[in-house]
Structures are given as C-alpha cells and as structure tokens.
Design goal:
This protein is of the alpha/beta class and 273 residues long. It has one domain: Spore Coat Polysaccharide Biosynthesis Protein SpsA, Chain A (Alpha-Beta Complex). The chain has ten helices and nine strands. The protein starts with a strand and ends with a helix.
C-alpha cells in the first residue's frame, strides 16, 4: 500500500506550528510515506525528496472562486450565522472561508495524487514517536473506505485526521459530495459551516459500511473532547488544537489513554509540578 499525508497552513500557521509538523514528520514517519503541503502563500523548509510543497491558491480555481464569491459575505466569515444557533463566542463554527482551504486541498489531492490512501492531518499536529508501517494496519484498515475520529451523534467528528482510501469508489464519491457542498453553497443550508460539521452531514448521507471509526470511546464523556490523542494516533502524534497551540501540546486533563507512554507521561509529570 502507498500512503500520502496532506495538510495546509498559511504563513502565521507555518511559524506557529506548521514547520514543526513538517520537521517531526520528516524525522519520524516511514521514508516511503509522502507528504504534500498545500501552502497558502508561504515557503516551508523541507528535506525529504517525497515532500512536496504546492501553492494552494495557484492550483485550486474552485477555492479562488469560493473565496471571491464570499469575500464580503459576513455569513461566510464567522460574523453571523443562523439566528437560532449562532453563538458569537464560537464564531469558528460559521467561518466557512477559513475552513474551505482544507476542503479544497482534499479535493485537489484526491484528483491528482497517485496513492492508495490519502491521509489528511491538521498542521497543528506533530509526531512525537516513530510511526511504523505496521501502524497503518489499524489506522487505514483493509476493507474500509475512510478512517476517522467519530464522536457519536452529540458532537461533530474530529477531522484533524481523516484517511481516504482512493481505491474505493464510494470514498471518491464521498469526496465529490463533500466538495460539492462548498461549490454549490449548500453548506449555508446547514446549522454550522465549518468543515467538520459539513463532513459529518455528508457522512450521514453515505453508506455507513465504508467508515472505520478510530475512536473506540466515542460514547464516553471524558474521551469525546479530544479523541485524536486518546485513539491509536496518540501513540505517535499530538494534536495541539484550539487554545492548546499556545502550549505546543495537549493538556494533562486531555490525557485519558496512553498514560504510560513516555511522551504523555512527561506532560502529565510536568503539569503536576
């Protein structure tokens, strides 16, 4: 099997977390796993021959059209939303343009990559432990079309990781349906407009047989908030999402699994001190 990881970030993201994501990936992932970076007008450093940097705004006409169409639309930038659910304290849920870069990166990669599995990983993720090829038996299992971090019906999925089996026709259709939601502005018919919520709505319309949920504890209240690090992914990676970016790692209160792992043990001990 051939695996390719993709991600995207802008200049500020590159400086805060993106370069770390690249450096730890290139140091700790198998040499045969490629990395494609959809950079937003920035120039990251890379050393591997199979790490590729692509200017997203140059290659994705669909993204440029979406951004231009909603340049002056407050509904697409988190400044407004459906009156019955809009919360100004959680504007990201309606910031459609902000998260559209991720969606159109997935679309472009799915169309142009020659790989068996395309793996989306958020750029505020870093690798702390070498990833063996054997890990993909669990992370991208044979017979599944997509692997993801579901959190049940109460919360939207954690889309900091999504594995797409590009050999599966149902997976390819899922990607097309996902991107079409943006191309046709159908996202604005939903209650929330960020990529994870939209992704879930498309998932719910798709055959459940193609999805493999990496979150074994999706019905546990203590494990639903940060399933990335508490799944098998936590053996190798940390996802410093949201306010965790200022610390550069997840918090001790996030850690419900892998407490004996050296990386997580160090965080637990340092935050107790």
């Amino acid at each position: 099997m051939k695996y390719t990881v993709i991600t995207t970030f802008h200049q500020a993201g590159l400086e805060q977390y993106g370069q770390r994501m690249i450096d730890t990936f290139e140091a700790l992932w198998p040499a045969d796993v490629a990395l494609v970076i959809y950079a937003e007008n920035c120039q990251p450093r890379t050393i591997r021959p199979n790490t590729t940097v692509i200017n997203l705004l140059e290659v994705s006409a669909d993204l440029r059209v979406f951004i231009d169409r909603h340049r002056d639309n407050p509904l697409a930038h988190g400044r407004a939303g459906p009156p019955e659910v809009f919360d100004p304290k959680k504007q990201f849920r309606w910031d459609a343009v902000r998260f559209s870069y991720k969606v159109f990166s997935v679309a472009h990669a799915a169309e142009h990559l020659s790989t068996d599995w395309m793996i989306w990983i958020d750029a505020d993720t870093h690798t702390h432990t070498p990833v063996p090829m054997s890990a993909f038996d669990e992370l991208c299992p044979v017979g599944s079309g997509l692997s993801y971090l579901g959190r049940g019906e109460k919360y939207h999925s954690e889309c900091g990781w999504v594995g797409y089996n590009l050999n599966d026709p149902d997976c390819k259709k899922f990607i097309q349906d996902f991107v079409t939601m943006y191309k046709q502005d159908d996202i604005f018919k939903l209650s929330e407009w960020h990529d994870s919520y939209v992704w879930d709505q498309v998932r719910k319309r798709s055959s459940p047989a193609i999805f493999h949920n990496l979150n074994r504890h999706m019905h546990s209240k203590n494990l639903s908030g940060h399933p990335f690090i508490n799944s098998a992914l936590g053996n190798y990676m940390d996802h410093a999402k949201g306010n965790r970016k200022k610390y550069g790692h997840s918090l001790s209160t996030d850690i419900q699994q892998h407490q004996d792992h050296p990386y997580w043990k160090q965080i637990l001990q340092s935050q107790k001190a």
